[in-house]
Each structure stands twice: as structure tokens, then as C-alpha cells.
Amino acid sequence: MTTIDVKSGKITDSARVLPDDRDSQKPAVDPNRPLDDLDGLKEWVVTRCRMWRDHRRSNYEAIWDQYERLWRGLWMTEDKNRKSERSMLVTPGLGEAVENIVAEVEEALFGRGDSFDLKAKFDASEDAKQITDDNKNKLKEDLGNADFNSNIGEALINGAVYGSGIGEIIVEKFILREIAASVTAAYPPVAPMAPTAPEMGLMGPEMGLPGAEMPAPAEELLPELFPPPALPLQAPTTAPGVGSAPLEAKAIEREVSYACMYSVNPRNFLIEPTARTVDKSLGVGIEEYVGSHIIRAGQKDGTYRKVDVGTSAGDTQLAPDRQIENEYVFDKVHVIRYYGLVPKHLLLPPSETVDLTLPDAGEVSTDAVDAVEEEIVDLATLNGDGSAKSVEPIDAEMIEAIVVIANESVCLKAVENPYLMKDRPVVAFPWDVVPGRFWGRGVCEKGMVPQRVMDAEMRARIDALAYISAPMMGMDASRLPRGFQFTVRPGKSILTNGDPNTILRPMHFGQLDQSTFAHTQQLDQMIQRATGSLDVISLASRAGSGDQRSGSTSMMLSGIVKRHKRTLMGFIDRFYVPALRKILWRNMQYYPERYTPRNWNFVASSTMGIIQREYETQNLAQLLNTMEPQSPEYKMILMGVVSNTGLTHRREIIEMLKKSIEMAQQAQALQQGAAADPQTAALQTQLGQLSVRLQIEESQAKIGELQARTALQNMKARNAAIEPQFRQMEIATKGIYQVQADQQDRAFKQRMAMTDNLLRARDIASNERIAQTQSRASVASEMIKARATSAAKAQTPAAAPKPVPVPVPVRVPVMVSRPQPQFFGRSARLMA
């Protein structure tokens, strides 16, 4: 490290070198170590990966940095438009465009639930179709566990920002832990019995276990779920968990392997510059930093070779976030995963291969065997003329392989392509195709120019606001006090040597142009036009103002929908469906107990974003107005409208419409079949005549009913006109004479009043008799009790003089005569 001394503002000629600890650090792997058999393969892969990386960095990464900053709203000194620029504003126009378009594609894929469908071959049997449906349901479940949708969204973001979305499909091992029930309570000692299915918590689809289709026998699960107790256990007679048979949860662990897709940042992807697709390339590489513990775990389980691997200091250009300043440099390893063609003699060195054609060592002497082995080594490394075999792809025999290299110095893994279909586990798509190259053109590249112009406009406006809002003064320095510092604050006094009006003067440098806001709005529209995004707020405001022509919204949406659908179809054909196909291939190979191998076809069922669905729904609704509601065409279009919505019962409604169309078609077929039979045709003619006559009779009946209602209404109107005259006559004659009905009413009321009075009188008399009877009975009871007491005392021997009882006079109730009530009409009053 070199430092330069600075004295008095001038750079001196002297420079001194300071010690640097990094100069004394040793490399991760000792360069003097013995050569590995795979060193040649390692050097071949690393050399090509370095060339591909240099080409990518020199041509793309500088502009990728600008795309990322504009998308994230970050500012750096490279983004300055002029030296005097001070504002660091980055407008969100391009970021909004990226998010809108990515959200539109994600809505098209996952907005309505099922994003894909798996169908068997057209000539497959019913069993094969059922197996295909089972594989589809299991694949959807495993994709949800593997976080597939979020990685798809990340790949879409990379495609929109950098122009290309990339995914890597890796087969990983997982430990599935499932809960099962085990009996733990002690029972009276009896002969041990095998637990029943509910006691064992059998593994199966109903328990949510991916894999076991049939429950294992009891004797197989018994040692795992039920360790042998000290005393024999009695099987419970009741259901598990009920009564005296408590159950305890127990975890069952098993190792499974299935495929997962992970998004790859384009900065970590290496490909041959002359290739246009992954499959046509010599090979592809994915380089990234991983934790050292992952490498160690891979070496323990046999995935990687057990070689010495050190840690890496780190490279900011390979970091997930290029905009950060400090790079983490501990406990990480630089890994290159290479998928592609390699020279066969480098992948399969003689020391690590076995030739099955060699004779047995027991039959041939050791010298003969050594001679044969030396000859094989020579054939593997040398040509027929004795020259070394070439490692150049144009000359060498190539083989598809997977190579993993750590820190560009150690080969962790090198195997021939182990996959069933011999395909490369990488999928990629360009957001927009650039003819003749692999890397695509994204949303940020389309809208970068108007975005930078808009940023320059807004930064100039912010800089101009600083000149206008900040106080600037022109002062006569000769008439200010010595040591004067001009600062402004409320309540401060400024000292001047003379009139302040002549010494201090505000200064203004121009005025802020109000047209800059109109310019930014136009530039924002340019971003939308370049990227295909849609400003919903401005669209709604223009639609509500009524100043646009009829159909202009539809024309604008049609262009946006076509661009989105073009991007969506390219993504599905080049990335989404190939990724699903490769994942299912891996699962059939590495998870055979869950997936049944079958031939099938992937179909992407969601191919419309929300904007396109709204646009097509509007057009279908206009078509509905031109058809009869009972026609099959009307129902078919209605099915299209319902399918574009997000209703919860969308499928049920579509099935009902399908059944309605089928019933209508069957009725039409019956009518057509009946028309071919003469007897049936005659009956239909007679039926038609009867139907016409019935319609005539119904029409005549309706006419009669209308006439009767008209007459009734006329009578009601006439009565309403005469009713006031009757009312007037009744009021005028009231009280003058009584008709017979009034006399009968009065007589009836009098008789009812007399009957009420008679009933009340009888009720009063009955109550009096009851009271007298109760009083007499009470007196008689008291007299009997007194006599009985006197007799008992007389029979007892007299021990002492007893007091003479004095007769107590008993009060005899006196009858009170009450006057009879006098009644007047319906009311009664008691007169004294």
C-alpha cells in the first residue's frame, strides 16, 4: 500500500510504502500441494468461466448498474448531468413501470389459482390419466413447499430490470418430520398386541405425508413408534385418546429428495457469448458465494469430494447488492457450478475409472496387468500418434457433465450428467428479444432515456429552488463592522455604518419556471409509452373528465395488452413451462415412491393479466347486447365473461352454463329427430294448432278480464262520486228520526246491560254466603277445642287448687244488610 504525504497543499515527490497485512496472507489452497487428477478439468472450466465473465462485465455490467439505480431510486456521482448539479433526486417513474408490468405478469400466472395443468397423451388410458392427475396434485403441493412462486417473481424482476430472467433447478435433500400418535399409558399386564391403524398414526395422503401411498404393516411401524416396554402392555379397548388410552405425539423423520428452482441474478450467470440459448451453449456457469458450513455438510453426506477448501475474501462485483460499500469477507466460499460439455478424458481420468474389460489379476500376472493399465493410461491421455489429446472443443471428444469448483482452485464435484433426460438444470428467458444474442432487453433499458431526462429536469428545478428560497444579500463591505458575520435568525439586529437600505440589498437570480412540471408530466408519459406501463390515475382522470373521444381508452388498452401478452407468452414458453417440465422429470427420478413415471404435456392455464381481462370483458359485454339471452351463443360469451372474473364460485357457474347449453342442444336434437318421423310431424302440427288455439283462448280470457276490471273501476269511480252526497244526507238527518236498525240496536244494548247487572248481583250474594259459612265454621271449631281442653283438665288429679274458668263470650257475627246497587245502563254505582 502506498501513501502520499501532503504538505502546505502541495504533493511532495517523496512516497513511502506502508506494510499491509494482506501481503503476508497465504492463499486459500497451497499452490505447492500435489496435483489432483481433476486439476486439468478444473483449469479448463475456470479458464472458460473467466473469459465469459470478462466479456459480460466489459459489455453489460456498467449499464446494468444504471438500470438498478434507476429502478431502486438510488443516486451515485456517475449519474450527474453537470458538474454544478447538487440535487440527488431520482424520480420513481421507471420503478413504477417495472412494478406495474411485473405485477401484471404475476397476476396473469397466479391470479386465478391454477397456473398450469398437466394432461396425459391423447391416446392414454383412463388409468394413465388418473396417474397424471395425481402427479399434478403432488407437484403443486411440492412446489408450494419449495417456495416456487416467490422465485418466479424474483426471476421476473431480474428480467424486467436486467433484461434476462434465469433459474437454476437443484435436487435437494429434505428431512420430513411428520407427527404420529403412540400409546404411552400403562395397562394391566396381558399379552402384547399389535396396535391398530388409528393408534399408529399411519402415514398416508390423509396425514399430509408426501410419499407413502399405502400404510406400512403394524410389525414394521411397531419398533419405531412403540419401544419395547419393561412390562407387557394391554391394548386399549376404547378408541385412542378416549377413556383410558391416552396418546402422545411422536415425530417420524425420513429423508426425501425433490427438485427446487432458485432464481439466479444475471451478475452471477456465465454463458458462452456466442450462444443464444442455454442448450446451444458450450456450457453455462453459476458463480456465487455460499456459507462454508454448506460445503462442509456436502462433504459429510458425500455430495462433494473430501478435499481441503479454504474461505474466500469476497468480490463486490459478485455480491447480491452491488450498491453496498462494505463487503462481508468471513466464512464464505466462492463456488462455480458448471453445467455443460467438457473433454471426456479430463472428466474420466484413468486413475479414477475402472475398465471392465481388464482380465482378472488372479488369471494374469501382475506385470501383465500393469502393462495393460499403462497402455490404457496412454490411450486415455495420448492420441494414436503419441501426441497429447487436445482440450479444445473443436478437437476433443466432449461429454455432458456437472462440475463444481470452489475458490477457482479445488474441484468439489465432477460427474457425468446424471439426469434422466440428459438436460441442463438451467432455464432462462429474455424479457424482450434482441436478435442474435442471449441477453435480452428489459423494462429499464426501454425507459432509461426519458427517465434520465426527467431526473435532469427535476434536479434542475430543485437546484433553482435553492437559489430562490435561500436568502442572498448584496452588502457594502466597507460600511459593515469589522468581524461581521451575516446570519439570519428571528429577532437578530444587524449593525451597519449608515443607512441599511443603501448597505444591504436582497439578491435574486432569476425566477422558477412553472413549465417544468408540465415537462415532467410529458416525460412521465414518455416512460409509459416506452415501457408499456399504465398510469391508472391519469387514465381514470381523463376518462372522468369526458374530454377524450369515444373508444380512445379501448385503443390505448389494446396496445398495452398486446405488449404484455407478448412478454407473457415468451416467459411461459421459454421459462415457466420448461422449468415445470424439468422439475417433474427430477421428481420422477429422485422421488419415485411419490411420482409415477408417465408421459404428459404441460399446459399453462393462465395467460391473461388483469388489464387484458378487463379489456376483453368489456368487449364481451358489448357483444352480449347483440344476442338473445336464450341462445347458446349468448351463454358461451357469458361463460367467457365469468371466466375472466375472480369470483369464488366461478367454476360452479361455468359448469351450470355448460349444462344449460347441453340441455338446450339435446332438446334441439330431439326436435330435429322428431321432424324426420311423419307421425311425429303430424302430432307436432296438431300440437302447434292446439297451442295456437290455446293462445287465442288465453288472449280472449285476458280481454274479458280487462273488461271486467274496467267495469269495476267505473263502478268504484261512480260510488266515489256519490259517496259525499250520502255522507251529507246522513249528517243532516242524524237525531231527527230513527230507523228500525237504530231501534233494534238500542234495545239490544239495554238487554245486555240488564244481564250484566243481574250477573253481578248474583255474584255479590254468593260471596256473602261464603263469608258467613266460613265465620260459622271458625266459631264452631274454637268451641270444640275449648271443650276438649276442659275435659282433659278435669280428668287430671288436682294437686293444687285450679283457677275457675270464666266463660268467654263469643262474638256472634251480625248480618249487615247492604242496599242493592242501582244500575244505570252499562255502569253500576252503589248508593248508600
Task: Break the fold down into its secondary structure elements and pairings.
Blueprint: E1 2-7, E2 10-17, H1 39-72, H2 93-110, E3 117-120, H3 126-145, H4 148-162, E4 164-183, H5 197-200, H6 218-225, E5 247-264, E6 269-271, E7 283-291, H7 292-300, E8 332-343, H8 344-347, H9 366-381, E9 398-406, E10 410-416, E11 426-430, H10 443-469, E12 473-475, H11 500-503, E13 504-506, H12 515-531, H13 536-545, H14 552-590, E14 600-603, H15 610-624, H16 632-643, H17 650-675, H18 678-733, H19 740-795, E15 822-824, E16 827-829
Antiparallel strand pairs: 1-2, 3-14, 4-5, 4-11, 6-7, 7-8, 8-9, 9-10, 12-13, 15-16
Helix pairs in contact: 1-10, 2-4, 2-10, 2-12, 10-12, 15-16, 16-17
Strand elements, count: 16
Mean pLDDT: 74
Low-confidence stretches: 1-14, 25-29, 185-244, 354-364, 371-379, 823-832
Side by side, the strands of the main sheet go: 6-7-8-9-10
Count, helices:
19
Helix content: 40-55%
Estimate the strand proportion: 5-15%
- Give the CA-CA distance, first to last residue: 135 Å
Given helix and strand content, the structural type is: alpha+beta
Radius of gyration: 51 Å
**Largest sheet at a glance?**
5 strands, antiparallel
> Shape from CA axes?
extended
